[in-house]
Design brief:
The protein is α+β, with helices and mostly antiparallel strands. Helix content is 16%, strand content 40%. It has one domain (10-156): Jelly Rolls.
Length: 160
């Protein structure tokens, strides 16, 4: 696979977060996965959560990405990189009035499948199956704090 065109890759979209899997773990001998996130304007992409197994590196392609990493609040513009190490609680969102695009390197690979597993459980309208969501998070050893949604939304003027 010498190149990947902009429209290529598997989709695993959520209501306010588009996810295009650019490279799967199998294509990098497990070293990393590459996912492009498209975040709706002023939308929360993920509430506070902690990965036990993966480091994430978010390179902003366009728009502005807000994030909390540990105790630090950052706002990253196109060309900036935000490091979200495993074991450190973090959240991220679009801090722009237009959509924000982020290229996320996840190391080691494998977590890209989380987006595929979660997408069908997040309906565009109506309540998700919270028990099924919890089972997916447990499978990927991801600790999520859903109670942070309201706080983050209010603090940063986001829609959940």
């Amino acid at each position: 696979m010498p190149s990947i065109a902009s429209g290529e890759g598997e989709r695993a979209d959520f209501p306010a977060l588009g996810n295009r899997i650019v490279l799967r773990s199998e294509e990098t001998a497990g070293r990393f996965a590459l996912v492009e996130h498209t975040i709706a304007p002023r939308a929360l992409a993920a509430p506070l959560h902690t990965h036990r197994n993966e480091d994430e590196y978010s390179f902003v392609l366009s728009g502005r990405m807000g994030a909390i990493v540990g105790e630090e609040v950052v706002e990253a513009c196109a060309g900036d990189l935000v490091v979200k190490p495993r074991g450190v609680p973090h959240a991220f969102w679009s801090a722009a009035d237009e959509e924000t695009r982020v290229l996320e390197l996840i190391s080691p690979g494998g977590f890209e499948q989380y987006f595929v597993d979660l997408a069908p459980l997040l309906p565009a309208d109506g309540e998700p199956d919270f028990e099924a969501l919890g089972a997916v998070r447990a499978r990927y050893e991801l600790d999520m704090d859903p109670s942070s949604i309201a706080t983050l939304s209010k603090r940063f003027g986001l829609r959940a």
